[in-house]
Amino acid sequence: MSKVLQVTLGLITSIGGFLEIGSVITAAQAGAAFGYKLLWAILLGTLCLVFLVEMSGRLAAVSKHTIVEATRARFGFPFFFIVTIGMGIVAFLVLIAELGGIGLSLQILTGIGFSWWAVAVSIVVWLLMWRGTFSLIENGASLLGLVTISFVVAAIKLHPDWGSAAHGLIPSLPGHDKTKYWFVAVSILGASISPYLMYFYSSGAVEDGWDETYIPINRIIAGIGMTFGGFLSMAVLVGAALFFQPKGIQVDKFSQAALLMTTALPKWGFFLFALSMLFACLGAALEISLAIAYFFAQGFGWNWSEDMNPSRDARFAFTYTIIILLAAVPLLFGIDPVKVTVISMALTSATLPLAIVPFLLLMNDPDYLRDQRNGWLSNTVVSIVILISFVLAIISIPLEFFGS
Amino acid sequence: MDSILSWIGTAGMTGEAWLRHTTPDKYSAQTLELSSETILQISTQLLKSPPSSVDSSALDSTITKTRKHIDQMARLIRAKDSPAFAHQLDSLRADQKIVKQLSDSIEASQ
Amino acid sequence: MKVIADVLDKELIDRNGEPIGRVDGLVMHVGERTQPRITHIAVGGPALWERLHPAFARLSRRLARMWGPKRTEQVRIPWSRVKTAGRDIKLDVEGKETGAIDWEIWISRKIIKRIPGSGGDEEGDGSQS
């Protein structure tokens, strides 16, 4: 494959695969409640993600190892086990949220409740994993995910005040609802900086056989792709600020969010929202299921590849089979996917150091990176953003759930 | 109070979107029903310990009236009766103003 | 001892280039007069869980007796079969013969191949890449 084609494909996958239920719901909540004020959280999260994705690809290209393989080998099993528990719980919650997001999209389209869709949705996701190849999942899902660009069109058609939007890129204190403000900021950070995306991306780079010649391509994909992805989240926030905030509507339920584009794009807005969420959540559900299976397989040294037949990497296939089926259970009982989304995004923020600190140490280890180790810029940006997310998370999560 | 206003707003927007034929019937009716149910839940909670600055019976009756209008709208979608629906939507807008005034008076007294 | 940090938890690759597990433990021989030396690499089950807590190891043994390939003794690969020990440990053995992938084979036979479309209708493993 020519490098130009690879860059194009890489950009499409990072843009089309960027949004999922977490980024949409948190951005919509932020815009509805605080106008443009929380745009900075998306900016900060996306900036950090750009560096983290670049690092994941570089580690794979130089060492031919994924983050998980290297973490276990470098830090030993007891530490790896703790990371597994933390990441496993959070990723599983996110998977429930994404499967729920598919169900909710189908619910607003058909009127049939999401819990009725739970089993069918999880079987379809599983079937795509069972029969699909890595490139089918990565490229197919994100190509469909390009429909999420409609959020940008909608936001522009609502005529945002660019000046105040730019103001929102600089952090400021809220005038009201301080607890909620910080909690939503934490959720946005968690939705932007998703560790599963790093695991998925580095495994993908190893599956595609990257070597050091891929370092420039990787830089372009991470830099440009993730930045454009961040714009999509910002568009959701801006659209929500213009549509919901003046009417005093808070986004607590999916059916409220579905109104987002109904004035900007009268004819298609509703269906574009439903389709965007359907494809975005489908792509994310596939990525997370793969990321969890990769995590276990790589951590325990099993055979793994999405391109192999399941019988050739039985434990890998068994892991995603069980996890996808289990994730349907809470949905069957009618647990609200939006609630799961909000909680899992905040928990992601709180557990970021568990995933990122060992990763940063690896990225500075000459055994793995040789002369391609992190520079001071990557180290500084990532450390600061992770620290901010973590501190905000451990302060605001208890306040949100047990506070006044 | 903010959540009640949020859900009245939701019902209003859902109504407008349906009148413009931009949303499916089932979704619109379900969202209106959800709004009505949620408003009932929140107001029941609220009226257990009503804010002292507000006449709780006035609040109760306004909310009951609002919910009636929303329920009516959901029914009219099933009957595909746009003119009557538009009429109900107007009443809902009037209710929204009253609830907003009540909410502002509570906020002012705090 | 540096060798432990260098070897423990590394990926094990068999003769065919297939990953067969990780170095979950090391078996040492401590002689009275000789230097202590590694004699075996332990893979899977008890050796791994023992490193967290003996209770985990007991649980893992109990579960292994109830379910799975029913292998009771710890999988050990003689150190003499190590070809190179770099970022991965390359071995001069066939994965299947060591017992390290008993679980892989068991899950493949008992579960995965029974589900349609697993690509496992052909006899034997490794018929497709």
Short description:
Chain A is an all-alpha fold and 404 residues long. In chain A, 77% of the residues lie in helices and 0% in strands. Chain A has a single domain (3-402), classed as Amino acid/polyamine transporter I (Up-down Bundle).
Identify the CATH architecture of chain A.
Answer: Up-down Bundle
Summed up, the helix count of chain B is 4
Low-pLDDT runs of chain B: none
- Strand percentage of chain B: under 5%
Proportion of strand residues of chain A:
under 5%
Biggest sheet character of chain B: none
Q: State the distance separating the first and last CA atoms of chain B.
A: 13 Å
- Which consecutive residue ranges of chain A, at least 5 long each, have pLDDT under 50? none
State mean pLDDT of chain B (0 to 100 scale). 91
Word description of this protein:
The complex is a heterotrimer of chains A (404), B (110) and C (129). Chain A has 404 residues and is an all-alpha fold. Chain A has a single domain, classed as Amino acid/polyamine transporter I. Chain A has helices at 3-16, 21-34, 39-63, 67-75, 77-110, 114-131, 134-145, 150-157, 162-168, 178-192, 195-207, 215-243, 254-257, 269-300, 314-332, 337-363, 366-369, 376-402. The model of chain A has no long low-confidence stretch (mean pLDDT 94). Chain B contains 4 helices and no strands. In chain B, α2 packs antiparallel against α3 and α3 (56-78) runs antiparallel to α4 (82-109). The longest helix of chain B is centred in the C-terminal third of the chain and has 28 residues, at 82-109. The two termini of chain B are 13 Å apart. Chain C has helices at 2-7, 45-50, 54-66, 95-98, 102-110, and strands at 11-13, 19-22, 25-29, 37-43, 75-78, 82-85, 88-91. A 4-stranded mixed beta sheet of chain C has the order 2-1-7-6, with no helix packed on it. Chain A binds chain C through residues 63, 65, 69, 72-73, 76-78, 80-81, 130-131, 300-304, 308-312, 314-315, 317-318, 321, 367-368, and chain C through 8-12, 18-22, 24, 48, 51-52, 87, 103-105, 107-108, 111-113, 115, 117-120, 125-126, 128-129.
